[in-house]
Every structure is written in C-alpha cells, then in structure tokens.
C-alpha cells in the first residue's frame, strides 16, 4: 500500500509540476507591449493562472517572426491574425471569409458557435506530426476599404488602382483581381505605411487600425472610408496542447466567448471614432455588386481549399437569419 501511495503521490507531483510549469506565449501586436492586443493577452494570462497555467507573454511586433517562433517551439502558444493562422485551422480561419460576416452581430454569433464545446474536436489539428489547438478567437472588427481619393467610389473606378494585399492571404489576391485593381504584395507591418506615403491607392483595414497606424495621414483631405464591411478580422490563439494542463483549451475558449460583448463594445466605439467626414456610403446597386462579387470569390476559394465548407454553411445561415430577403438566401452553393 505504501508503494502504491508513493507512486500516486509521485504522479500527482509530476502533474502538478507540469500544470505549473512556465509557458511561453508569443503575442503579435504592431505596438508591442503598448498595443490593445497585448493588453488583452495580459488579461487572459491572469485568468489562465486559475486554470493551472503560469504564462509568460512575449511581445512580437513582426507577425511572421511570431509564427516562425511558434513553429520552432520557442513559443508554446501564439496570438496572431486568423489570416495567417488559417494554415493551422481552416474551420476557425474561415470566419474571416470575403463577405462572410457582414456585421459585428453576426461575427459574435459565428465566434460563439465555433468555440462551443460541441466543436471541440474541430479545434484540434495535426500538421507535420505536430498537434495544434485553437484556444480562443478574438474579434478585431470589420475590414473597410480605405482610399486616398474619394472619387474611387465604385468597382469600375477601382480598376487599375494599386491595392495593398497581404502576400500570404490568397483571399485578398482573389478579390483584388476580381475588381481589376493592381495587387501590391505587402505585409501587415508595412501595408499602412504604403497607403500613408502614396505607394498604394487602397487598403482594407478595420477601425482598430485607424489610430495606431495613423491612417488619417493616407486619407488626407481627399480620402474616404467606405461604410461597407468586406470581411471580419479576427485574431486566433493557438497552442501546443501538450504544453498546457488537461482541459485548458476549452476553459480558454469559454473565456474568449464570455469576453465577446466587451470586445465588440470596444470595436463599436472604435468604428464610431473614425471622423464622419471620411465615411462614404455605397449606392444600393454597388452594394449588391460587391455582395455578388464576394460570394463568387468565397465559392472559388472554398473550391480551392482555402475556406472550410462547413463554416461557409454556418455563416450563410447566420446571414440569412438576419436578412432573409438577401439574394443569396435562395441560392445553393454554400
């Protein structure tokens, strides 16, 4: 009995040590420790102590470096945009599909559904013999089109204009090609600078980026922001589950869902803070053109394997529950 008790105590001791072992989590934020994303991660790390994880946050101002450090095992977890994280989990990464989530209300529904315990198996993936798990999704808000010249106010007028696209996101390349614009391959660390200094005419960005990236410089006195969301931008939190206590992933996902109202309240404030003088509404005809174009793009990207078909179906149901009269609701394909 003494041997059994000793063995049990040893196992318990080992599991306690594993649960309390230091865990490194890389956090991508263009502003480093002073950015909103890093501050959000700090709140999460405090909560994680209650789940048995002693987390050290490592700020990364270059997203590619954060991703590479995660791949190399230098980070046990990583916060980064879903556009780059899609390589690890297509189901969650497809929330950021072209026109898939046209409002913050639908985004909240989609994220809540994805992170529900019923989808726990879809949160885990195996790549190259390594196991990864999505332990959270945080909204960054709708991406809007920013233009340096407000006269670029239709699809036809975008033809030939320079549009900064993230080189690793196939979706952006497809949509820019469809409007006939000229894709300028960029990175999340320099796309705003290219817009501000006139190297490109157009970018897509959430209100979240307006102040920190000083997009008012690119808008100047003649620019505009079109009041038409082209996609929802989210950040994913990925972990190597074996480095975290058992059951950690779902506890973390529940935390993110619980904090969604707070996150969207902040996003709504940021969207309202963009000066009204820059905001331009599209005509009803142009809105319909964009919706049809983005639907065609989603179908193409799903066939290419970029988007997850099951998430496309979920998002369509969410859109049509809000707007039953939308042209797409009577169409098959998603």
TrEMBL record:
<feature type="signal peptide">
    <location>
        <begin position="1"/>
        <end position="21"/>
    </location>
</feature>
<dbReference type="InterPro" id="IPR045758">
    <property type="entry name" value="AdeT1/2"/>
</dbReference>
<dbReference type="InterPro" id="IPR038404">
    <property type="entry name" value="TRAP_DctP_sf"/>
</dbReference>
<protein>
    <submittedName>
        <fullName>RND transporter</fullName>
    </submittedName>
</protein>
<keyword id="KW-0732">Signal</keyword>
<dbReference type="Pfam" id="PF19582">
    <property type="entry name" value="AdeT1_2"/>
</dbReference>
């Amino acid at each position: 009995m003494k041997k059994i008790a000793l063995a049990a105590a040893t196992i318990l001791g080992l599991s306690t040590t594993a649960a309390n072992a230091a865990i490194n989590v890389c956090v991508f934020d263009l502003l480093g420790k002073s950015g909103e994303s890093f501050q959000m991660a700090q709140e999460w790390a405090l909560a994680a102590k209650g789940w048995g994880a002693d987390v050290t946050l490592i700020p990364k101002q270059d997203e590619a470096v954060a991703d590479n450090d995660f791949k190399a095992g230098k980070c046990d977890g990583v916060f980064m945009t879903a556009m780059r994280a899609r390589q690890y989990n297509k189901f969650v990464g497809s929330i950021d599909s072209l026109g898939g989530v046209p409002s913050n209300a639908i985004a909240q529904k989609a994220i809540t559904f994805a992170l529900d315990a019923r989808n726990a198996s879809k949160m885990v993936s195996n790549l190259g013999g390594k196991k990864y798990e999505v332990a959270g999704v945080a909204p960054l808000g709708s991406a809007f089109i920013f233009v340096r010249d407000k006269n670029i106010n239709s699809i036809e007028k975008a033809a030939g204009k320079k549009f900064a696209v993230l080189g690793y996101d196939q979706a952006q390349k497809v949509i820019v090609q469809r409007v006939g614009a000229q894709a300028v391959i960029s990175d999340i660390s320099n796309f705003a600078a290219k817009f501000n200094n006139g190297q490109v005419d157009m970018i897509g960005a959430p209100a979240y980026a307006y102040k920190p990236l000083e997009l008012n410089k690119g808008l100047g006195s003649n620019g505009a922001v079109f009041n038409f969301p082209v996609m929802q931008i989210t950040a994913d939190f990925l972990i190597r589950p074996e480095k975290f206590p058992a059951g950690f992933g779902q506890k973390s996902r529940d935390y993110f869902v619980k904090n969604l109202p707070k996150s969207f309240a902040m996003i709504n404030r940021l969207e309202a803070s963009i000066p009204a003088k820059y905001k331009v509404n599209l005509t009803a005809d142009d809105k319909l053109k964009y919706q049809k174009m983005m639907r065609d793009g989603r179908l193409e990207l799903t066939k290419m394997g970029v988007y997850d078909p099951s998430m496309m179906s979920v998002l369509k149901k969410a859109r049509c529950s809000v707007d039953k009269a939308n042209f797409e609701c009577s169409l098959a394909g998603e």
